[in-house]
């Protein structure tokens, strides 16, 4: 069956195509529009790309899946009303009084997208519950026969957290749901705002800041509490109502600033903010682990310890490290596009499963556009810098990296999800002191304390990192072995961890070849790998995007296809 998945229309819109259970193409709209998170945009460019990549016409689409559900809205609107009527009465009454118009919007918005894309109104449109789509995006592509699952984000049709399991027939069973405003995602996002970053964008920065602080030096117990197998946020501080907000675009309240001081400003690390970040991160981890203990023990035992995780919070690699360490968890699989960008994938997978298609597991994340040599040459003709087609781009670039140079690396199909996995990357030598600082300062223009990730030859991953767990998508972090910390200082975070990608010869032969040649030259089987973009921009998609970034930052070398572009004389 040919199924088009289209995603969230508020932020991170995306599209995907499944053909007989095989994921053929997937991409986020932001990569084409160049507007990070593509707020309020229809995923039309993403739809057109997916159809082109699959070699299909609009008329070939047999079904469409979209992650919105009026039934889920109805199921929880009264729960939301009674939870919120005393602390946020306006929202509580609107949830009930305006339920008709909101549900109508659920039904009409996807149809507007499809009409704009040229899809006939006769094509069946399946509405899949938001958190069910998140769960499906992880389970059906994990390759697991059965599994417990967690989904966790801000909210979707009132649900903020869902726990349950998939049985051996692939049927979902929901054990427990938590509804907004009691949201771990909103809690973390509110603290992100207070710490000087943007909610729905800067949460990973809080995660990176947390290891610099001491969680015992600041308490967030007033913000969110856990008792009687349930958590509850403090409405006075978290996801504040508009009239109580510190500023209209911030989610924290005036009361929080009055009690704990003004919000953080600037890029530097400072107290007490590093301790607030540490306490925030620890609270997220502690509550999630308690949810696993209270609701998933039996499901984990029945599945042999397999756990799937999706939703925005699933991109928190420190949380994932603790989940892997949980005694009941033997294996964790996280959807690499765990944000709302992954929703169309889960929605389409559920429709495919119910149609009888066998879903093929995701073994890589290279589902975006690839560009021909001719397209690359056309873009390079417009740059003032010299370029040359190399006999072996991997030999040339490994030599540059060995000498301590930083190289932009643009190859093959673009990655699906927020992690650079060796096709739209900035690469560096992890042994050369100052490389990370240079990338932050003159290339990405971001905070100088931000950590970098290693891309490791998969056959050496367990030698470098203290784990037996696989890590193909940079969705986990692990402790770096003591014997390696001094060898590769530029990818070791302040807490002694790293967020690795294990690079497979099968799934990315050119990137594997590059790291292998670097290994032959240096004895180091890994590279610094960060996304090919500048602060505030989406990851690079096209050759034109790559050339524009190259010209506008401190990069000296760009390896694009077989070509090396240089600001130095070649």
CA-based shape: globular
Largest sheet: 8 strands, mixed
Number of strands: 22
Low-confidence stretches: none
Could you tell me the mean pLDDT?
96
**CATH homologous superfamily grouping of the domain at 373-566:** Carbamoyltransferase, C-terminal domain
Radius of gyration of CA atoms, rounded to a whole number? 23 Å
CATH class of the domain at 373-566: Alpha Beta
Strand content: 15-25%
Helical proportion, percent range: 25-40%
| Alpha plus pi helix count | 20
Termini Cα gap: 51 Å
Strand order of the largest sheet: 13-22-21-14-15-20-16-19
CATH architecture of the domain at 373-566: Alpha-Beta Complex
What structural class do you assign from the helix and strand content?
Answer: alpha/beta
What do these coordinates show?
By secondary structure, the protein is an alpha/beta fold. Among the domains are: 140 residues, 2-Layer Sandwich (Nucleotidyltransferase, domain 5); 194 residues, Alpha-Beta Complex (DHBP synthase). It contains 20 helices and 22 strands. It has an eight-stranded mixed beta sheet with strand order 13-22-21-14-15-20-16-19, with helices on both faces. A five-stranded mixed beta sheet has the order 3-2-1-4-5, with helices on both faces. A hairpin with a 2-residue loop joins β2 and β3. α7 runs antiparallel to α10 and α15 crosses α19. It is globular and about 70 Å long. The termini are far apart. The model has no long low-confidence stretch (mean pLDDT 96).
């Amino acid at each position: 069956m040919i199924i088009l998945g289209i995603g969230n229309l508020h932020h991170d819109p995306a599209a995907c195509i499944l053909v007989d259970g095989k994921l053929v193409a997937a991409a986020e709209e932001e990569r084409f529009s160049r507007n990070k998170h593509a707020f309020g945009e229809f995923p039309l460019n993403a739809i057109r790309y997916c159809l082109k990549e699959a070699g299909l016409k609009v008329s070939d689409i047999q079904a469409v899946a979209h992650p919105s559900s009026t039934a889920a809205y109805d199921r929880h609107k009264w729960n939301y009303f009674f939870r919120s009527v005393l602390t946020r009465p306006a929202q509580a009454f609107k949830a009930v009084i305006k339920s008709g118009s909101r549900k109508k919007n659920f039904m009409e918005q996807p149809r507007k997208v499809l009409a704009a894309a040229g899809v006939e109104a006769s094509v069946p449109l399946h509405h899949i519950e938001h958190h069910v789509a998140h769960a499906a995006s992880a389970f059906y592509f994990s390759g697991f026969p059965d599994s417990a699952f967690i989904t966790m984000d801000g909210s979707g049709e009132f649900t903020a957290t869902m726990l349950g399991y998939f049985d051996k027939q692939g049927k979902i069973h929901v054990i427990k749901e938590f509804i907004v405003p009691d949201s771990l995602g909103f809690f973390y996002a509110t603290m992100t705002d207070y710490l000087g970053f943007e909610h729905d964008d800067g949460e990973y920065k809080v995660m990176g800041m947390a290891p610099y602080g001491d969680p015992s030096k600041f308490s967030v117990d007033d913000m969110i509490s856990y008792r009687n197998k349930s958590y509850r946020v403090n409405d006075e501080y978290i996801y504040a109502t508009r009239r109580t907000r510190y500023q209209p675009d911030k989610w924290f309240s005036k009361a929080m600033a009055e009690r704990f001081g003004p919000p953080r400003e600037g890029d530097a690390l400072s107290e007490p903010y590093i301790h607030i970040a540490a306490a925030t991160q620890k609270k997220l981890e502690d509550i999630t682990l308690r949810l696993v203990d209270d609701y998933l023990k039996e499901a984990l035992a029945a599945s042999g310890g397999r756990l799937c995780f999706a939703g925005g919070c699933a991109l928190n690699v420190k949380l994932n490290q603790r989940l892997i360490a949980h005694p009941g968890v033997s294996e964790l699989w996280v959807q690499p596009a765990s944000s709302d960008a992954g929703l169309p994938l889960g929605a389409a997978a559920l429709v495919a499963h119910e149609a009888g298609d066998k879903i093929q597991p995701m073994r890589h994340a290279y589902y975006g556009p690839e560009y021909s040599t001719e397209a690359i040459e056309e873009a390079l003709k417009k740059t003032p810098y010299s370029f040359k087609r190399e006999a072996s781009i991997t030999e040339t670039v490994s030599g540059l990296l060995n000498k301590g140079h930083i190289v932009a690396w643009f190859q093959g199909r673009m990655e699906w999800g927020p992690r650079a996995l060796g096709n739209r990357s900035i690469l560096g030598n992890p042994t050369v002191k100052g490389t990370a600082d240079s990338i932050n300062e003159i290339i990405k223009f971001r905070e100088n304390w931000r950590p970098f990730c290693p891309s490791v030859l998969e056959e050496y991953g367990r030698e470098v990192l203290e784990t037996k767990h696989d890590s193909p998508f940079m969705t986990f972090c692990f402790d770096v072995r003591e014997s390696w910390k001094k060898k590769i200082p530029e990818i070791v975070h302040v807490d002694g961890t790293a967020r690795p990608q294990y690079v497979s010869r099968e799934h990315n032969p050119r990137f594997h070849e590059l790291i292998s040649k670097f290994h032959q030259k240096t004895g180091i089987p890994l590279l610094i790998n960060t996304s090919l973009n500048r602060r505030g921009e989406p990851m690079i998609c096209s050759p034109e995007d790559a050339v524009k970034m190259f010209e506008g930052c401190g990069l000296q070398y760009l390896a694009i296809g077989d070509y090396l572009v240089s600001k130095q004389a070649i």
